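Long-time lurker. I teach an intro course on protein structure, and each term I like to show students one example going from raw sequence to a predicted 3D structure in token notation. This year I'd like something fresh instead of my usual example. Would anyone be willing to generate the tokens for the chain below so I can use it in lecture? Attribution to the forum is fine with me.
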Amino acid sequence: MNAARRLIALLLGALVALPLAGCAGEAALPDVGLKGERFKVEIADTLEEQARGLMFRRELARDHGMLFVYAQVQPQSFWMRNCEIALDILYFDGQGRFINGHYGAPPCRAATCPTYDSKRPARYVLELGAGVGRALDLREGDPLELPAALAP
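-- Reply from a regular --
Happy to contribute to a lecture. Here you go:
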């Protein structure tokens, strides 16, 4: 009986600790600035992180997103394969200046999905929830405020 009680106590402790671990991880997220607003971002700077992106996410808070950081400035092309939520996809050049965006890109579960391309070579791509990027009324050249470690 003592073993069963210890197991229950251990499981209850784990359930209490899980939400706290999520809060600690969120506090550690860097943020970016765009048109006077701040967004907590997950950084995708490895091939694996970039390939996965926001796939399989069922929600994304309005003030959260994912920042893709590429080693080189080059044409970028994104798709929405296995995404569960619509997104705004925003492209920025090597100096962090806005190039163009695709707003409200819908989820895609098909074998072949449409692509969303940068108009010019880009180094940074910011994904936000659908409607968030459009609401910022971005104009070509608007600066993305990057964490110091990622700044050009």
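Some talking points for your students: The mean pLDDT is 85. The first helix runs from residue 2 to 27.
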